[in-house]
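TL;DR need structure tokens for one chain.
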Amino acid sequence: MSEKYILAIDQGTTGTNVALVTIRGEIFASSYKEITQFYPKPGWVEHDPYEILESVYACIKELLKVSKVAPRDIFTIGITNQRETTVIWDRETGKVIHNAIVWQCRRTSPICQELLNTSDSETITNITGLSIDPYFSATKIKWLLQKVPEAYRKSKQGKLAFGTLDSWLIWNMTGGKNHVTDVTNASRTMLLDLETQEWSRAILGVLDIPMELLPQVCDSDADFGICEIDVLDNLKIPITGVAGDQHASLFGQACFNVGEAKCTYGTGAFLLMNTGSEIKKSAKGLLSTVSWKVKGVIEYALEGSVFSAGAIVQWLRDELNIIDSADSVEQLARSVNDTEGVYFVPAFTGLGAPHWDMDARGTIVGLT
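>> reply
TL;DR here they are.
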């Protein structure tokens, strides 16, 4: 009997990674493809949703070729993804109405500032556990409905669908049959009631976002639909696990007990600590969020979000051409004993926790 595999899809900010994982939890093979980031204006960041979809398919094709594993030996699919990044598409045609607005994008700062000047801001934070910031999906949705012609009218008629990238991938991989998300991704939209794990009608009313636009919220280990795509020989393979990347990382690092934490250094840096069944509120600028919901049991976390970490290394390599490869930064850092008071504030897309300053800019301090 041949080995059976889980197909694990990790759709990230700078690229897509797809792996074959054995039932023993061992990575058998993997494939990676970078994706393009677009910067149409200062502080704006976009992705092409079609490029993202094609990157997933290309990685699967390459993975099967290199590993010599047949699609029939894949028994289930799991998806993890960059969070908050927002896509809206036409339910009938499947066509997006605009490029994906990436979690780093600052274009909705004016909308956030308007909210902060009202009594609604405290209500939103209490319900969602999140700070008012362009980071989250809600104001991105509002911007798209305001700026794209006919978008608001069509959304009221139920003709459009919103999703974070898990929803976009599932919609396409199931042939448009399933418009769903998991509770971890939903908790990053600034539209989810943390206590009930349902969309907040109060917040939807404040932001004038139609309920008809939103996906069904599922547990992290739910049945998300049946994948039938060409690169997998159109075999019927179930999608049975979905989580936002940082929540999946917390789970993958086995932080199952209250107080256990992990910090991931990727495009940004994200510290999450398991708080168990209790929603903990921070007085120091941390976020309350969902850890996961598995076997019907919800668990929560506190999170500190730093927007720029590995992205700075990529900037040094691709934009300033100071380094040839990402791994050379460690050697350069070790070549000096002290920065002598010079430091860099990487606020390319504002500052996240604990400051939540959406207008902050990157700066080098201490030059003489």
